[in-house]
Structures are given as C-alpha cells and as structure tokens.
Design brief:
By secondary structure, this protein is mainly α. The chain starts with 11 loop residues before the first helix and ends in a 14-residue tail after the last helix. Helix 1 crosses helix 4, helix 3 crosses helix 4 and helix 16 packs across helix 17.
Length: about 260
C-alpha cells in the first residue's frame, strides 16, 4: 500500500497560513524563525512547494519589515538582498561570503544565510551559479593531502572546520567530496590531526543539527542522528547539554513523550 509522504499532507494554503502565523507572532518570517514551530512543515518543504522561500512569502502576502536603520544594521527585503549578491558577482567576478564583506554597502553574509536558510539557497534565488565546482565538465581531482590541508586551512582561517563552511566558501571543494574520499567528515578531520570533540561547535550549531535531523528524517532519535554523516556524534550532544533529552529540549522539541534512545 502506498503511503503519503508526511510533507504531502500539507496543502498549499495550510503552508501559506504557517508563514503568516510565523510573521504575525515573530515579526519576521525567516527560515530560522519558521523552524522554531514543531507543528510546521519543514523549511525544505516550503521551498520545494513554491520554488523558493521568497516566492512562498510572496504567495502568503507576507510583507517585509523595513526600518530606518542604515548600513549593515538595515533590514532588507528579499529582493534587495538578492540584488546585493548579483552586484557582488558583477564587481568581483564571484560572490562569496568574503567578497560580500569587502564593501559596506552590501548586506552581511549572516543576514543572507538567516533569510534564505543557507548561502547556497540564496545564490540559487539570485540566479548565480551556486557551485562552479559541481558544474565543471572535468572537476579538479584533489589528492588526499590537499584535502586534508584544506581542512587545516579552514580551521586556521575560520576558527573551525565544519561542513557548512566548506559548502559556503568557494575556496574549498564541497564537503561531499571530502566525505566521499574519507568515508565521513569526522574521519577526515581526525586524519588532518584535528580534535573532533565538541569544542569545534557552538551550542547553537549543535541545536541546529538537532533541528535539521528532525527535518530530514521526520524524527530526531540518537540512532538517526548518528547515521547521518552531516552531524556530530550523539555523544557530543550529550556532553554539551548533559543528556540527549536535554539537548532536544534546548532545541525546542517537546520531550513529554518517550523518544527512541532519549538518553545515551
């Protein structure tokens, strides 16, 4: 018997109502704020259904919040942010988080990622080639030593070496290329000589992993979390927050009901 995907049960109008509720209650409707609602569908469901976050907001009639602030603190519409990305591409021949920060008249990369859910998604919406590394007919082959050196360089330059940074920074190959070569991200970091314990992650990054796990796998059990190479080990969550259950509570999950492997 065919079973309907959990995301299919939401009609377009129900999803649009979720967006309006987020805006009414939070003052803004960003992917980060949307994820705070356990009863809502996933952010990826919204983007897939309406071909992008900004299109969904337009369909919902969600207006942008504008203020009188100027410079980096100014609040921008989605289209203004996308225009900055296009202008950055025009000026520098590429649009990376580094080039965007070179001019004060551009929005900050943090605002871009918060508004669109990820750097890659924002570049897609701006119509910019999101990753030329994936579209070359003959992508460059890196040696093991080169990939490990890049992990160390990422750590030196940005203070930590995470898959998110690798995917957002055009100076590196994708994190998928690293996982494909070494089996998983943690093994690659260990081979590069980096400590893979939780000091590489902020508490908010760990909480975001828990939320992302729930979106991808429909639940956030320790088993599902451990099986996904994009995440740290469940033990890291337990170490930081005292227990798996406490970590999920901090991430905004209702832990009143029993959960598979709630504690490790």
């Amino acid at each position: 018997m065919n079973r309907m995907s959990p995301e299919k049960r939401y009609s377009d109008e129900v999803i649009l109502a979720m967006l309006r509720q987020c805006k009414d209650q939070q003052g803004v409707c960003t992917p980060r704020k949307f994820r705070e609602y356990d009863q809502f569908c996933s952010v990826s469901c919204v983007m897939d259904r309406f071909d992008g976050w900004s299109n969904a907001k337009k369909a919902a009639g969600v207006e942008e919040d504008l203020s009188d602030d100027s410079g980096r603190k100014r609040q921008y519409t989605d289209e203004q942010i996308l225009s900055h990305l296009r202008e950055c591409q025009r000026r520098y021949g590429k649009c990376t988080t580094d080039t965007l920060q070179q001019d004060d008249d551009f929005v900050s990369p943090t605002v871009v990622v918060t508004r669109f859910g990820s750097w890659i998604e924002a570049k897609k919406e701006a119509g910019i080639d999101v990753d030329e590394r994936n579209h070359n007919s003959r992508p460059r082959e890196y040696s093991d030593e080169e990939l490990l050196d890049m992990i160390l360089e990422c750590k030196r330059k940005y203070g930590k070496a995470t898959q998110r940074i690798f995917n957002e920074k055009d100076e590196f190959p994708t994190s998928g290329a690293v996982r494909h070569r070494f089996g998983n991200w943690s093994t690659a970091k260990e081979l590069a000589g980096l400590d893979t314990q939780n000091q590489d992650y902020s508490s908010e990054e760990l909480l975001e992993m828990l939320r992302e796990c729930a979106e991808r796998h429909e639940n956030c059990s320790a088993k599902k979390f451990a099986e996904d190479d994009d995440f740290c080990s469940p033990g890291t969550i337990q170490s930081r927050f005292g227990s798996w259950r406490r970590g999920k509570e901090e991430a905004g999950f209702d832990e009143s009901s029993n959960d598979e492997n709630s504690d490790l």
